[in-house]
Amino acid sequence: MLGASAAPALAAAMGMGDEPPSTSSEVKGVVFRLLTTLPRAPGPVEGADECSHLTVKPTSEAGRLVADRGWAVTGEAKLGTALRAVSFAGGFEPGTSGTCLVNDGNVGVFDGSKLVALLYAEKGAKATLGRLEALEGGGVRVLDGDYLATPLGDIRSIDDYKFEFNPVAANDSVCGGRAKVPNINNMSIDKARAALRANGWVPVPSSEQDRADSRVADLVKLGVVEAEACSGTGLGYCSYNYRSEAGTLSVTTAGDNDYPSVTDYAVKCN
Q1: Where residue 234 falls among pLDDT bands split at 50, 70, 90?
Q2: Of 151, 169, 187, at which residue does a domain stop?
Q3: Quick check: 157 and 163 in contact, CB under 8 A?
Q4: Last residue of a domain, one of 169, 191, 214
Q5: pLDDT tens digits, one per residue of 82-112
Q6: Distance (Å, rounded) from C-alpha 130 to C-alpha 125?
Q7: Would you say residue 44 lies in a domain?
Q8: 150 and 212 share a domain?
Q9: What pLDDT score does 19 carry?
Q10: Domain total in the chain
Q11: Predicted model pTM
Q12: Same structural domain for residues 163 and 214?
C-alpha cells in the first residue's frame, strides 16, 4: 500500500489537489492497492492460443500498455466517468468443454495511460481473478479465474478516485433502469426462475422440437418449461429464456443435478 506521503503525491499528479485516492476491498482474499507502476508479466503467457476466446484485442491506451508489459488482456470497461478498468492475466490452463483456468489474474484501474490502482488475489487465497464485465451505471463486475467462471465482486468508483471492491450486488439494473436482474449466480434453476419471476421476468416456454432432447424434457417435467437446449457432454450446459417489457434474458446452467445451477446470464434490451 502507498505510504501517507505517496498518496498526496499521487493526488497532485492527477490534478486532485490534496484529496488522496483510496481503495477498499470487502471480498476475502482480494487486495485493492493504490499503485502507479504496472509490473511486467512474470513470463510468456502460457495457454494463450488454446484460451484465445478469453482474451481481447486492446482498444484503449491503457489496454495497449498492459499488452506491452507482456500480459494477456481479458477485458476492458469504462469505470465511473473518467477512468478505465482493464483485466489481464499471466497465463491460462485449458480444461474441458472450452473452459480455461486463469493464472495471475489482475484488474488495473487507469487514468488514460496512468495506472491508479491494482486489484489482485492475495498469495495463497482461494479467490482468483479472471475477466471483467461492464455494469450499467459505470461499475465493473469481476469474474473469478476458475474453469467455470462465476462473478466474484463489483468495482465501483466514488468521485472517480475512491475505489471499492464489494461482493456482487443483490440486483443489477439493466436496459436503462427499466428492469432489474437479481443475483442468481450459483442458484439452482428452480430458485433462480422464482427470483426472476418476482422481478418481472416471465419464462418463455420452449418448443416441442426443443423438448425432444431428453435432458430438456426432464427439466420441463419438473416445471422448468423454459428449458430450451442442453449439451449432452462436458459440463452439461443448459439454456433458458425469459422476457419482460424491457427485453429478453437468456440464462445458462451447468451440471447434471435435477435442478442445475446458474453460471451465466445475458440481457438483450428492446
Answers
A1: confident
A2: 169
A3: yes
A4: 169
A5: 899 999 999 999 998 889 999 999 999 999 9
A6: 14
A7: yes
A8: no
A9: 66
A10: 2
A11: 0.88
A12: no
User: Do 29 and 121 form a contact (C-beta atoms < 8 A)?
Assistant: yes
Q: Are residue 109 and residue 217 in the same domain, yes or no? A: no
The band of 232, judged by pLDDT with boundaries at 50, 70 and 90, is confident
Q: Which grid coordinates are listed for 173?
A: 439494473
For residues 137 and 163, give the distance between their C-alpha atoms in angstroms, rounded to a whole number. 15
Do 117 and 215 belong to one domain? no
Based on the fold, state whether residues 150 and 191 are members of the same structural domain. Answer: no
- The closest alpha carbon to 241, from 212, 213, 216, belongs to 216
- For residue range 139-149, list pLDDT tens digits in order: 999 999 999 99
Measured between alpha carbons, how far is 156 from 168 in angstroms, rounded to an integer?
Answer: 11
Distance between CA atoms of residues 70 and 89, nearest Å: 9
Containing structural domain, residue 206: 173-269
What pLDDT is attached to residue 5?
37
Backbone angles phi, psi at 8, to 5 degrees: -60, -35
Half-sphere exposure of 19 (CA within 13 A, CB side): 9
Would residue 234 count as lying in a domain? yes
Tell whether 122 and 160 lie within a shared domain: yes
Burial of 49 (0-12, 13-18, 19+ CB in 10 A): exposed
Determine, yes or no, domain membership for 1: no
